[in-house]
Design brief:
Shape: elongated
Strand content: 15-25%
Structural class: alpha+beta
Number of helices: 4
């Protein structure tokens, strides 16, 4: 299994949003480059740790075979564009969307064949199946934005991107895995 980001969202916060948090005068743009880099780093770190996408992103998930249920690892999933696969003759096919169900309520989101049907036979090869989907919050939850602000402020103060600051994992409930604010 492999996952590849096809397109991504812009950073959820700007340098202007972070100046006051970092004790920088609102009109002082001299640190904007540093803040922009720290925002991107904090956003990426927290996305990676949480397994969530914080803005609209398009992903391709590659699988060698069809499992019973295809779990989509980056949430919250908002849409599935297509499922493509190589049939037993090696010809790429696009699976008709009427042949599978998209479950966006489960965590992680998943795809299953329509009752009474099964997945088609796919060629035995690496990455025989590809699912393209879109994920990301339409409106980023306030506690995620606060976690990014807190992380950027701590990193700006120490001038290094170390571990997440104390309290950020708890703020996001990363240890408990409770992401019920989707």
């Amino acid at each position: 299994m492999g996952i590849q980001q096809i397109s991504g969202a812009s950073a959820p916060l700007t340098a202007a949003d972070l100046r006051s948090v970092c004790s920088i005068d609102a009109s002082d743009t001299s640190f904007d480059g540093d803040l922009t880099n720290l925002i991107a780093a904090a956003n990426n770190r927290i996305e990676d740790m949480s397994g969530k996408a914080f803005g609209a992103q398009t992903w391709n998930l590659a699988l060698d075979t069809f499992p019973d249920s295809i779990e989509l690892p980056k949430g919250p999933v908002t849409a599935v564009a297509w499922i493509k696969y190589y049939d037993t003759t090696g010809t790429e096919q696009t699976l008709d969307a009427s042949k599978y169900l998209v479950d966006l309520i489960s965590n992680p989101a998943r795809l299953v064949p329509v009752p009474g049907l099964s997945w088609p036979a796919a060629q035995t090869r690496p990455n025989a199946i590809t699912v393209q989907f879109t994920s990301g919050y339409t409106t980023i939850p306030p506690k995620i934005l606060q976690a990014i602000r807190t992380t950027v402020a701590a990193w700006f103060q120490t001038r290094e991107t170390t571990d997440l600051p104390v309290g950020v994992a708890e703020m996001l409930d990363l240890r408990g895995g409770n992401w019920g604010f989707a």
